[in-house]
Each structure stands twice: as C-alpha cells, then as structure tokens.
UniProtKB/TrEMBL annotation:
Keywords: Cell membrane, Lipoprotein, Membrane, Palmitate, Signal. InterPro entries: Entericidin. PROSITE patterns: PROKAR_LIPOPROTEIN. It comes from Trichloromonas acetexigens. GO terms for biological process: response to toxic substance. Pfam families: Entericidin. Coiled coil: none annotated. Belongs to the EcnA/EcnB lipoprotein family. This is Entericidin A/B family lipoprotein. One of its GO terms (cellular component) is membrane.
Amino acid sequence: MTRLMMLLLAAALFLGGCETTKGVGKDMQKAGGWIEEKASK
C-alpha cells in the first residue's frame, strides 16, 4: 500500500511540474538529451 502511495505521489509531482502535454514532451527531450550525453562519455 505504501509503495502505491509513493508511486502516485511521484506521478502527481511529475505531472504537476509540466503545465501541458507540450511541457511533458519538452521534459522528455531534456531527459533524453541528458541520457545521450552521459552514454556518449
């Protein structure tokens, strides 16, 4: 039960930080760019 609550809280914070679906796309691009940068090193 606690694990579910933590997952829901994390999802709410993530989605709350993105104002629109366009914002979600930009966040995903930033995360992808960071991963590519770390993988290329």
